[in-house]
Design brief:
Shape: globular
Strand order of the largest sheet: 1-3-2-4-5
Number of domains: 1
Organism: Musa acuminata subsp. malaccensis (Wild banana)
Helix content: 40-55%
Protein name: (wild Malaysian banana) hypothetical protein
Structural class: alpha/beta
Pfam families: Thioredoxin
Strand content: 25-35%
Number of strands: 5
Length: about 110
């Protein structure tokens, strides 16, 4: 597990599965940024996502490049980039589509309480 307040890059299925397992064991909210190197809005929101990881240290923040982990992106029904999904116990509980700086912190706060 990475340091609190950091964004963990998942580059293999094994890394992805390990992070989900750790999150399930801890009961923490997982916030996943589905991104790609060619996506301008993804690059724009990345520093903000890192700021959110520093602010909400009781959640786990993951980054998945859809080109590296196509199977994960398909399994999570990612159709637009960036897309952020919120997971609890391995289940998707919410999502934000687009670089929505206004909505991301609100959704994190909402799901941290639940």
């Amino acid at each position: 597990m990475a340091e609190k307040g950091s964004v963990i890059g998942c580059h293999t299925i094994a890394q992805w599965n390990r992070q989900l397992q750790l999150a399930s064991e801890s009961g923490k909210l997982v916030v996943v940024d589905f991104t790609s190197s060619w996506c301008g809005p993804c690059r724009m929101i990345a520093p903000f996502f890192a700021e959110l990881a520093n602010k909400f240290t009781d959640a786990i923040f993951l980054r998945v490049d859809v080109n590296e982990l196509k199977r994960v992106a398909l399994d999570c029904a990612i159709e637009t980039l960036p897309t952020f999904i919120f997971l609890r116990q391995g289940n998707i509980v919410d999502r934000v589509v687009g670089a929505r700086k206004d909505l991301l912190p609100k959704k994190i706060e909402l799901h941290m309480r639940n």
